[in-house]
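Memo to structure team: turn this sequence into C-alpha coordinates by end of day. - J.P.
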Amino acid sequence: MLCSDVKRIVYFFLDGSLGSRSQLEFNSHLIGCPDCEQRLCFQRQLRAFVRRRLAPLNAPERLKVRLTRTIRVFEAAD
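Reply from structure team:
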Protein backbone atom coordinates (compact mmCIF):
# COMPACT_ATOMS: atom_id res chain seq x y z
CA MET A 1 0.00 0.00 0.00
CA LEU A 2 1.25 3.49 -0.84
CA CYS A 3 0.95 6.69 1.17
CA SER A 4 -1.53 8.01 -1.39
CA ASP A 5 -3.71 4.95 -0.71
CA VAL A 6 -3.58 5.60 3.03
CA LYS A 7 -4.60 9.22 2.50
CA ARG A 8 -7.52 8.07 0.39
CA ILE A 9 -8.85 5.38 2.75
CA VAL A 10 -7.93 6.64 6.22
CA TYR A 11 -11.54 7.68 6.82
CA PHE A 12 -12.82 4.22 5.90
CA PHE A 13 -10.26 2.71 8.26
CA LEU A 14 -11.41 4.92 11.11
CA ASP A 15 -15.04 4.05 10.38
CA GLY A 16 -14.20 0.36 10.46
CA SER A 17 -15.57 -0.11 6.97
CA LEU A 18 -12.45 -1.55 5.31
CA GLY A 19 -12.34 -5.20 4.44
CA SER A 20 -10.01 -7.42 6.45
CA ARG A 21 -7.38 -7.57 3.69
CA SER A 22 -7.33 -3.77 3.31
CA GLN A 23 -7.09 -3.36 7.08
CA LEU A 24 -4.07 -5.64 7.17
CA GLU A 25 -2.40 -3.76 4.33
CA PHE A 26 -3.22 -0.45 6.00
CA ASN A 27 -1.75 -1.56 9.33
CA SER A 28 1.32 -3.01 7.63
CA HIS A 29 1.94 0.29 5.88
CA LEU A 30 1.64 2.21 9.16
CA ILE A 31 4.34 0.07 10.75
CA GLY A 32 6.85 1.25 8.18
CA CYS A 33 5.63 4.80 7.58
CA PRO A 34 5.76 7.26 10.46
CA ASP A 35 4.21 10.01 8.31
CA CYS A 36 1.06 7.98 7.69
CA GLU A 37 0.97 6.87 11.31
CA GLN A 38 1.08 10.53 12.32
CA ARG A 39 -1.66 11.34 9.80
CA LEU A 40 -3.85 8.61 11.32
CA CYS A 41 -3.19 9.92 14.83
CA PHE A 42 -4.15 13.44 13.75
CA GLN A 43 -7.37 12.21 12.12
CA ARG A 44 -8.30 10.32 15.30
CA GLN A 45 -7.72 13.42 17.40
CA LEU A 46 -9.69 15.56 14.97
CA ARG A 47 -12.63 13.16 15.05
CA ALA A 48 -12.59 13.06 18.84
CA PHE A 49 -12.55 16.86 18.97
CA VAL A 50 -15.47 17.17 16.55
CA ARG A 51 -17.49 14.57 18.46
CA ARG A 52 -16.93 16.43 21.73
CA ARG A 53 -17.93 19.74 20.17
CA LEU A 54 -21.03 18.26 18.56
CA ALA A 55 -22.13 16.32 21.61
CA PRO A 56 -25.78 16.98 22.36
CA LEU A 57 -26.45 19.38 25.19
CA ASN A 58 -29.32 18.99 27.60
CA ALA A 59 -31.65 21.91 28.00
CA PRO A 60 -31.80 23.41 31.49
CA GLU A 61 -34.61 22.02 33.62
CA ARG A 62 -36.23 25.50 33.92
CA LEU A 63 -36.54 25.69 30.14
CA LYS A 64 -38.11 22.25 29.95
CA VAL A 65 -40.69 23.20 32.58
CA ARG A 66 -41.52 26.49 30.84
CA LEU A 67 -41.93 24.79 27.47
CA THR A 68 -44.14 22.08 28.93
CA ARG A 69 -46.37 24.70 30.59
CA THR A 70 -46.58 26.73 27.39
CA ILE A 71 -47.53 23.69 25.34
CA ARG A 72 -50.24 22.75 27.84
CA VAL A 73 -51.67 26.28 27.68
CA PHE A 74 -51.85 26.11 23.88
CA GLU A 75 -53.37 22.61 23.97
CA ALA A 76 -56.01 23.77 26.48
CA ALA A 77 -56.90 26.74 24.27
CA ASP A 78 -57.78 24.48 21.32
